[in-house]
């Protein structure tokens, strides 16, 4: 069986480029946001991006096998400090060019456009678990686009967000 190679440096480059774009422009909502709604962006939380927030996807395969199901972890690091009094710590949106994304728990949800995002319960954290089912044709290349927002939960568009 043939395997599709996804160079890890290319994936890392895409993740960094897209996350910088989305940290600058993505609108986050406590109940999540579809990728199609977020891709053009807005600056609802802060007037500019911060370089101390990163978003990553771990457990991506170097090569995927046709129709295999992969458990992926999405993590936001940096941003406002999480305190015992704070809520609404962050959110994300993720899309893939091929294959199918699905939710693993009550903290994520699938949107109509096929992207996956956090739920209201899932915005009180900065890590999420999702599943990606590879397409039946493993000769293709996949592109993941992810955006995230690390916030302080005060419902105000201010600098810490």
Automatic annotation (TrEMBL):
Residues 134-161 are annotated as: Disordered. InterPro entries: Reeler_sf. This is Reelin domain-containing protein. It comes from marine metagenome.
């Amino acid at each position: 069986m043939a395997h599709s190679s996804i160079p890890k440096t290319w994936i890392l480059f895409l993740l960094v480029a897209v996350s910088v774009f989305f940290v600058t422009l993505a609108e986050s909502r406590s109940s999540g946001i579809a990728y199609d709604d977020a891709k053009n962006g807005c600056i609802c939380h802060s007037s500019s991006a911060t370089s101390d927030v990163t978003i990553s996807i771990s457990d991506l395969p170097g090569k995927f096998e046709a129709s295999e199901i992969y458990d992926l972890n999405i993590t936001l690091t940096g941003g406002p400090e999480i305190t015992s009094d704070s809520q609404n710590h962050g959110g994300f949106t993720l899309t893939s060019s091929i294959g199918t994304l699905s939710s693993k728990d009550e903290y994520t949800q699938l949107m109509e456009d096929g992207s996956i995002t956090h739920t209201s319960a899932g915005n009180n954290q900065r890590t999420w678990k999702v599943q990606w089912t590879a397409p039946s044709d493993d000769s293709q290349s996949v592109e993941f686009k992810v955006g995230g927002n690390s916030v302080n939960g005060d419902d105000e568009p201010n600098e810490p967000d």
